[in-house]
Amino acid sequence: MNKGVKQVRKSINQRKNLRGLKTKDMSKSITPAFPQEEEKHGFFPFIPDNQQPQQTKEKSRFISWIILKGILSVVLFFGVAILFQTNSELLRKPTEWTSNALTQEFPFARVNQWYQETFGSPLAFTPNQNQQAENEQQLALPVSGNVTESFQANGSGIMIAPKDTSDIMALDEGVVIFAGNDPETDKTVVVQHADGSLSSYGFLSEIDVHLYQFVSSNEQLGTFVPNKENKTVFFAIEKDNKYVDPVQVIKVDDTP
Questions:
Q1: Alpha carbon 122 to chain centroid distance?
Q2: How many CA atoms lie within 13 A of 196 on its CB side?
């Protein structure tokens, strides 16, 4: 009888050793709280230790996409460089198109006008039509004041001297293509209009708009506070890469 009991205990210990559940090192073993279905039949569920997580696959795909974009960027860069170095007549038109695309500002205001004429509603970044209708009126100076320097004397625009702190208003609706510090006119805002013209507002004290923001006619672009160093606001209109006398566009009281 004792011999049979010893044989059964020996068989049990052998099974535990095969499962990895040694009684001498219980801290490194995994003992389920309740017997699983496999245990009833003499099997212990096997859980692999080295599973590749889904995050690793997604990270690999992301890295591959970044590398692909980098390669495409390099190919595009060298392609443009080769295009400009080639004097072939066949590549003349592609070269001109690429040059214009890289040097000219995208016509945001013109595209917005085309969208409204085609689909009958403004783009998402434009104000509603009721607000535009309220702001539509005759063109006027961006700020009230005397013109202290004419277009003929300045060569690119006019200088306006407000008497007090004033708001600087947009000449017409359009898209802001520059809002920041200009080397010549300090804090400056440039608005692109649907007809392709640009209106510039320089020597501002504060800028209240951001790049690529749609502005309505007479919408505030910034403020001007006269001081000892600066008493005038710069205003210019540019059409077809040429400056236009604002007096010819707007009814201005020229009082030097």
A1: 20
A2: 6
